[in-house]
Amino acid sequence: MGQTKGQKFLFTLMMCFGMVLFMTIYNMILNEGFNSNLFSNLLKEFWLGFIVALICDVFIVAKIAKPIAFKIVKPNEDTNPIKLILTISSCMVVGMVLLMSIYGSVLAVGFNMQALRIYPMVVVRNFIMALPLNMIIVSPVVRLMFTKVLKFA
For this UniProt entry, which segments traverse the membrane (predicted)? Predict the structure, then answer.
């Protein structure tokens, strides 16, 4: 979303922030339970995950996911925008889950063979949450906020 490079980057920042925030909370609750340290741990762990996710999004996933999405749904004047948005979002979620689950696996158990063993479970667990989170909550909210921000800019 967005017309200029700056607008596209702002949209990416907003999407990445929302997804990483909620996915970090989700994974922290799964790994540690809901406890009194959740907020302080979130403040510590969020930022590195956000930076890693933003780099993965901008330099890897978007460059692969968008061309795949455009092969699935060929954009033209007759293309339903919702169909295009859902296709791009789905492709982005798949790519980001695959990459960020590596990050999460290593963060959970360290850089060792155990991280490889838990990776498939982490992918499934993250995909189950990330796809509906993106489609139902983060993407619509960010799109609404983004259009409001552009009106004031």
Answer: 9-26, 46-64, 84-107, 127-146
